[in-house]
Amino acid sequence: MFDNLSDKLDKAFHILKGHGKITDVNVADTLKEVRRALLDADVNFKIAKDFTTRVKEKALGENVLTTLQPGQLMIKIVKDELTELMGGDVAGVNLSGTPSVILMSGLQGSGKTTFSGKLANYLKTKKGKKPLLVACDIYRPAAINQLIVVGGQIGVEVYSEPENKNPVEIAQNAIKHAKANGFNVVIVDTAGRLAVDEQMMKEIADVHKAIQPQETLFVVDAMTGQDAVNTAKAFNDRLNFDGVILTKLDGDTRGGAAISIKSVVNKPIKFIGTGEKMEAIDVFYPSRMADRILG
Ligand code: GDP
């Protein structure tokens, strides 16, 4: 994960290592390399620029020029800033409802259905919940079948109404079914399309309004870099979602989405997907991710 970025940052810090005394030119060179590394990782230009400005201010404030180990101090400052950029604290999911309703949104292929299964499995095995999965994709029968297969793998019931073409009704009926049958979490998987379009947005906004979920999650493929960030912005403008799920981080060699998305939509990344299996889900810890990035 993010090997290139880690390598480039490491090289940037080398400028400060092994110097008896460093100068502000050394610091400026290091920051230039840090910025270049972020841009190569597909981090948005403004975010990268603001990031290095903040690091510079902190470095000057902490007298990096006179410290005995300027390289170490810079790494610490960059790590703290990266952690902050990715969200600071860990953000959990709101499970306060009876049942707690979680609405999944995102483009087709982002990993929404897979993640719905992973989350159901996580809540069942790690949190002792009784989840119900709901298939609300009325366009692709294959999507309903996919969720049924996923549900079968993890032993979680899947609610669907293959003949019903009204996703609002399906979601509402599913919640009634959950209440009547003792399910305490309802995970609603919705229809995505290949690109943001008005019909999809209206449909999910209607479902959102009708079922008033405790948690609306936006699922996005980390490998799509700045596109992921733009798509997040479009969904957030419409849904004001609660959190981001970054999938396919196992295949993401660059890291731009992970680093940028929080500061663009001002919503935390809550979980990451790291593979196709149902167990490949992790809570997102900004500081651990920063550690990984810095190698
Ligand atoms: P949806 O259209 O948004 O519901 O997307 P799917 O859940 O069908 O996922 C699309 C493809 O991405 C499938 O082949 C999944 O197996 C794959 N996928 C989903 N999440 C991950 C992940 O975290 N890592 C990897 N490598 N593949 C994933």
UniProtKB/TrEMBL annotation:
Give the EC number: 3.6.5.4
Tagged with keyword Ribonucleoprotein: yes
Residues the entry annotates as binding GTP: 106-113, 189-193, 247-250
Under catalytic activity, the entry for this protein gives: GTP + H2O = GDP + phosphate + H(+)
Please list the residue ranges annotated as the SRP54-type proteins GTP-binding domain.
268-281
Q: Which superkingdom heads the taxonomic lineage of this protein's source?
A: Bacteria
Enzyme class at the top of the EC tree: hydrolase
User: Which of UniProt's keywords are assigned here?
Assistant: Cytoplasm, GTP-binding, Hydrolase, Nucleotide-binding, Ribonucleoprotein, RNA-binding, Signal recognition particle
Where found, per UniProt? Cytoplasm
Q: How does it assemble?
A: Part of the signal recognition particle protein translocation system, which is composed of SRP and FtsY.
What is this protein for, i.e. what is its function?
A: Involved in targeting and insertion of nascent membrane proteins into the cytoplasmic membrane. Binds to the hydrophobic signal sequence of the ribosome-nascent chain (RNC) as it emerges from the ribosomes. The SRP-RNC complex is then targeted to the cytoplasmic membrane where it interacts with the SRP receptor FtsY.
According to its UniProt record, which protein family does this protein belong to? Belongs to the GTP-binding SRP family. SRP54 subfamily.
Q: What is known of its domains?
A: Composed of three domains: the N-terminal N domain, which is responsible for interactions with the ribosome, the central G domain, which binds GTP, and the C-terminal M domain, which binds the RNA and the signal sequence of the RNC.
Q: What is this protein called?
A: Signal recognition particle protein
Q: Which organism is it from?
A: Flavobacterium ardleyense
Q: What is the lineage of its organism?
A: Bacteria, Pseudomonadati, Bacteroidota, Flavobacteriia, Flavobacteriales
